Amino acid sequence: MTTLQDPSLEEILALFELPFPDLLFRAQQVHREHFSATELQCSTLLSIKTGACPEDCGYCAQSVHHEAKLAVTPLLPLAEVVAAAKAAKAAGAQRFCMGAAWRSPHDKDLERVAEMVAAVKDLGLETCVTLGMLKPGQAERLQAAGLDYYNHNLDTSPEFYGEVIHTRSYQERLDTLAAVREAGIKVCSGGILGMGESRRDRARLLQSLAALRPAPESVPINALVPIAGTPLAGAEPVDEIEFVRTIAVARILFPMSYVRLAAGREKMSDALQALAFLAGANSIFLGERLLTTNNASTDHDAGLFAKLGLRAAG
Questions:
Q1: 95 φ, ψ (degrees, to nearest 5)
Q2: Active-site position among 57, 112, 204, 245
Q3: Could you confirm whether 60 is annotated as catalytic?
Q4: Mind giving me the DSSP string for 33-60?
Q5: 97 in active site
Q6: Tell me: the pLDDT tens digits for 76-130?
């Protein structure tokens, strides 16, 4: 099954416009060439520093610019992070992700995060962090501590980006991803659907991700979770079939990447999640909390896996 190389916007939009059965069939063909159709890569995400972020991302409760009711917490102690990582591993996670609400970490804070990375790595888990923009030398310090993945989402298209975020440019996001890649760390980068963007914006997001060299090893596709007190609190949810179409197109464009069904699963029906897995999603977050929003419960995930014949990758 051939996939697109350096896809044009028109080629990506043509995929979106395929009849739904044809699009899913093509995505399944690509998926089965590179992955087991019944295995899911499972990660757990922990907020290690919450709130008081100077960025103004319109979807995020952690911004100081918004009026979301959120308790601000400083950087967690190492022991608390290690305990959470142990619990995540026991629950079946292969990767432990740590997020801190910073525009960019100070070096003294980065040293503490590096200690967390090393300690989690010692547990036999893959490690991932999302800390905002990185200063020169910081990516290298994280790589030396054993960091496997750095998450830094592009969020949406370059054209729509300014409707959502004003305190950090699209190019700054690309520069951070380039620094991470240069340091030898794998890239986790995707976007959020349901912020008012068009299909063209969704296609441009995927085109921007496909232009990264090499492609991100993980591509999270998030459904916006509207949060009271944020500018996007009243956003209309993305159409469910359009959401699945985006998953399928991502699978075709990123045949060897993990495509993660990320934020928003708590509100998704079993049928919608099943369609997303059929479309090529092969990664999820386990655990009942994603930074500041709820996630599907562990018991519900276990029941869904059983119904669909899916299992966590070993």
A1: -130, 140
A2: 57
A3: yes
A4: HHS-TTEEEEEEEEEEEBS-BS---TT-
A5: yes
A6: 999 999 999 999 999 889 999 999 888 888 899 999 999 999 999 999 999 999 9
Of residues 26, 42, 53, 95, which has the active-site annotation? 53
Burial class (CB in 10 A: 0-12, 13-18, 19+), 10: exposed
Q: Is 42 a catalytic residue?
A: no
Separation between Cα atoms, residue 111 and residue 88, nearest integer Å: 23
Say whether 53 is catalytic: yes
Active-site entry in 26, 60, 112, 168: 60
Q: Which of 26, 188, 202, 265 is catalytic?
A: 188
d(CA 109, CA 129): 13
Contact 150, 139 (CB under 8 A): yes
Give dist(CA 130, CA 67) in Å, integer.
23
Whether the model pTM is above 0.90: yes
**Angstrom distance (rounded) from CA 247 to CA 276:** 6
Q: How far apart are CA 136 and CA 139, in angstroms?
A: 7
Phi-psi domain of 196 (left: phi exceeds 0; alpha: psi -120 through 50; beta: other): left
Under 8 Å between Cβ of 245 and 23: yes
Q: Amino acid identity of 211?
A: A
